[in-house]
Amino acid sequence: MPKAIPPETIVVIGAGVIGLSAALLLQSTLLPSQRIVIIARNLPHTESINYASPWAGGHYRPVPGTTAQLKQESQWARHTYQTFERIAAEDISAGVQFMRGIEHFESPSPEYVDVALDVNSSVYAHLSPSFRRISQKELADEQVKLGITYWTYCVNTPVYLGWLLRKFLLGGGVVKEYTLASIDEAFALGASDGGGVVKAVVNCSGMGFNDEKSFIIRGQTCLVRNPISYTLTRQGADGTWSFAIPRPLMGGTVIGGTKQPGDWNPHARAEIRETLLRNASKWFPFEGGEGGEFDVIRDIVGRRPAREGGLRVEIERVDVVAPDTMHGQKKEGKSVVHAYGLGGRGVELSWGVAEEVKALMLREGLIAERAAL
Ligand SMILES: Cc1cc2nc3c(=O)[nH]c(=O)nc-3n(C[C@H](O)[C@H](O)[C@H](O)COP(=O)(O)OP(=O)(O)OC[C@H]3O[C@@H](n4cnc5c(N)ncnc54)[C@H](O)[C@@H]3O)c2cc1C
């Protein structure tokens, strides 16, 4: 009789857009003896200010720049764009919809001006057939010094997270709702219920565990019923942002928004809502005419999980207490794959980061590419 292969588990910590995307992608590499367990404090359709993904606008807006980090992010963003193209074409119920994106700049920084001059060597290159600079005449607003437009997508994030989770469960994934005190705990918990050995833990916890570089960026937006047919972002000369992001499948429109590093206030501020709506009624062409009246569904306050120096995507070897030890004296080396600190770009980088996680794990022999038949 052939020898039975002992079971193996890969644990993914987190059920935000990063954890769910990574878990779903890794699922496609599993052998029959392997399983993936998601362990998360928050799951889709639960609400917590510290669970960023359901609060995301979530539209895609390329970010030009010359740093190695931004160049890497633009590759992940391109990959995510392509994946969302496929998802939107295959299944409307995912809550991903492509539409026109417009950006207005009152005082554009040089990177944006350069882009408008030479799109093909920029982070907008993959959008190039749809990309164009908007003429000053069309803009009809003296305060706006640069306008660009391109084909992009918006995601109804609460719907999309539910869709990802459903796919993961239908593919045989296991989910445990649990708040971990440490990464070590994930190795023990993942092995329970006949999970065998935990081969690796993928840390998609948003902020990481005791990472001194992690910090939050508070975001306040307002969800309204008023429809708008495209997504529009305006960067003010004073550094503020205004945006309107339609939520596909008639989920309303997100009007935003603030970026407040280190602001832990969990409550919506009335004066912020007032400013956001006043600016939106001035600048954004909502359907249903003039008047500036908004039908407010709710205020949104969320914390973007940011990190000094940018997101962390890497493998770390850690020593954890072996399961067969009485006094904790025996330790064994294990692999943790970190993928957290996405700040304000988690949705638009999600599939690129998930691919990076998979590539790192393949390189380390933690998973194997499934042989094609
Ligand atoms: C107002 C607002 C607007 C935004 N707009 C956009 C946008 O337009 N486009 C865009 O790309 N991004 C946007 N973002 C950013 C985006 O939401 C984040 O980058 C993204 O959600 C991060 O995903 P994540 O999976 O890393 O983290 P999260 O969604 O926070 O998920 C972390 C997961 O880890 C779990 N977890 C954490 N600690 C533990 C623990 N100790 N034990 C067990 N589980 C744990 C949590 O419960 C959760 O399941 C916006 C964010 C906000 C707040």
List the helices and strands and how they pair.
Elements: E1 8-13, H1 17-27, E2 34-40, H2 68-90, E3 96-105, H3 110-117, E4 132-133, H4 136-139, E5 146-155, H5 157-170, E6 174-177, H6 183-191, E7 197-203, E8 214-224, E9 231-235, E10 241-246, E11 253-256, E12 260-261, H7 270-283, E13 296-307, E14 312-321, E15 331-340, H8 346-363
Parallel strand pairs: 1-2, 1-7, 2-6, 3-9, 7-15
Antiparallel strand pairs: 3-5, 4-5, 8-11, 8-12, 8-13, 9-10, 10-11, 14-15
The structure holds flavin-adenine dinucleotide.
Residues 13-19, 39-42, 51-53, 55-59, 179-180, 204-206, 219, 221, 257, 300, 302, 304-305, 340, 342-348 line the site of flavin-adenine dinucleotide (FAD).
From the structure above, extract its key features.
nine-stranded mixed sheet, D-Amino Acid Oxidase, Chain A, domain 2, binds flavin-adenine dinucleotide, 8 helices, 373 residues
Describe the protein's architecture and organization.
This protein has 373 residues and is an alpha/beta fold. The chain has a domain at 98-153 and 214-307: D-Amino Acid Oxidase, Chain A, domain 2 (2-Layer Sandwich), CATH 3.30.9. It has eight helices and 15 strands. The strands form two sheets. Strands 3, 4, 5, 8, 9, 10, 11, 12 and 13 form a nine-stranded mixed β-sheet that branches. It has a six-stranded mixed β-sheet with strand order 6-2-1-7-15-14, with helices on both faces. A hairpin with a 6-residue loop joins strand 10 (241-246) and strand 11 (253-256). The longest helix has 23 residues, at 68-90. It is elongated, with a radius of gyration of 22 Å. Bound molecules: flavin-adenine dinucleotide. Flavin-adenine dinucleotide binds next to helix 1, strand 2, strand 8, strand 13 and helix 8. This is FAD dependent oxidoreductase superfamily.
